[in-house]
Amino acid sequence: MKKVLLVKGGWDGHQPNEVTEVFNRMLKDEGFDTTVSDTLESFRDLEYLKTFDLIIPTWTMGTIERDLVMNVIEAVAGGVGLGGCHGGMCDAFRESTEWQFMTGGQWVSHPGGAEVEYTVNITNNSSTITDGVEDFKITSEQYYVHIDPCIEVLATTRFPSVVWYNSPNGEVDVPVLWTKKWGHGRVFYSSLGHHADVFDIPGAFETMKNGLMWAAEGNQIAVENNLSADEFSSDKKMF
Questions:
Q1: Could you read off the pLDDT of 95-110 as tens digits, one per residue?
Q2: What's the pLDDT band for 219 if we cut at 50, 70, 90?
Q3: Closest CA to 219 of 187, 185, 189
Q4: 8 A C-beta contact, residue 6 and residue 23
Q5: With 90 as the cut, is the pLDDT of residue 5 above it?
Q6: What pTM value is reported for the model?
Q7: What are phi and psi of 142, to 5 degrees?
Q8: Within the chain, how many helices (H) and strands (E) appear?
Q9: Residue 206: what pLDDT?
Q10: Does a cis peptide bond (omega within 30 degrees of 0) precede residue 160?
Q11: Does a structural domain hold residue 239?
Q12: Is 37 exposed, middle or buried (0-12, 13-18, 19+ CB in 10 A)?
C-alpha cells in the first residue's frame, strides 16, 4: 500500500483544509494510506519523509526553515514523489528559491482575479496524466507563473484573458499542468485549485488524481532498483 503525507496550512483563502480533504478522499479511494498534518514540523525528520511514496503540500505563502526545505529536497531526490496544486505548492514559500527550483515554477500574478473564465488546453495527450482528457473550461483564478524551462508541460492556458499591464506583450500560452524530475523523484503540479470546488470539474479532478498517482509511482522504482539520492550529491555550490 502506497503511503502519502499531506501537509496543510498557510493562507486560509485557498481553503487548505478543504483542498487537502479532496486529495485525502481521492487517494484513499485509490488504496493509499494517508497521513494528514497541519504543521511544517512534519518535514523535520528526513528518515520519516523517506517512509512515504508521496508528499502533498497545501500551504500557500508562509515561511519555512531552510533545513525543512532541504529535507524535502533530499527525500524527493531519493524517489519520494511530490505533487500539489495552485498556491499550495507553487506559491508556498516565496522566499525559498530552493523550493521553487524543486517544484518547477512560481506564481507571480492572476490578472482578473477569481472570476476569469478560461480554457485549459491539453498539449500532451501521450501522458498517462492527461490520457483521455479533453480541453475544458474553468472559471477561477488564471495563474500566470514563472517556470523552470526543463519542465514537461502537459496543459496550458492563453493570456491575456483580461486587459492588464501584461496585455501589450500579446498572447502567450502559460503552463497549467507540468511534471519534472528531481533526482529519482517525480514532481507534478497543477495551477488549478483556487478553491476546493474546482475539482468538481472532471478534467481538473482526473488530471490531479492521475498526476498524484504518477508522482507516487517513482518511489517504488527507486526502492526496487536500490537507487539513492547520493549519486546526485555534489560538493559544488548548488543553492
A1: 999 999 999 999 999 9
A2: very high
A3: 185
A4: yes
A5: yes
A6: 0.97
A7: -105, 105
A8: 6, 11
A9: 98
A10: yes
A11: no
A12: middle
If DSSP states are collapsed to H, E and C, what string results for 113-162?
Answer: HHHEEEEEEECCCCCCCCCCCCCEEEEECCCEEEECCCCEEEEEEEECCC
Distance between CA atoms of residues 188 and 83, nearest Å:
5
- The reply to whether 7 falls in a domain is yes
Residue 31 belongs to some domain of the structure: yes
Distance CA 102, CA 81 (A): 11
For 202, other C-beta atoms within 10 Å of its C-beta total: 11
Please, which residues have CB within 8 angstroms of residue 17's CB and are 6 or more apart in sequence?
8
Report, as an integer, the average pLDDT of 68-81.
Answer: 98
- Name the domain count of the chain: 1
Could you tell me the CATH number of the domain that includes residue 22?
A: 3.40.50.880
What pLDDT, on a 0 to 100 scale, did the predictor assign at position 182?
98
Residue 144, beta-bridge partner list = 109
Task: Identify the domain containing residue 78 by its residue range.
Answer: 3-232
Beta-carbon contacts of 203 under 8 Å, excluding residues fewer than 6 positions away, are: 120, 133, 134, 135, 136
Asked whether residue 143 is assigned to any structural domain, the reply reads: yes
Neighbours of 70 (CB within 10 A): 15
Average pLDDT, the chain: 96
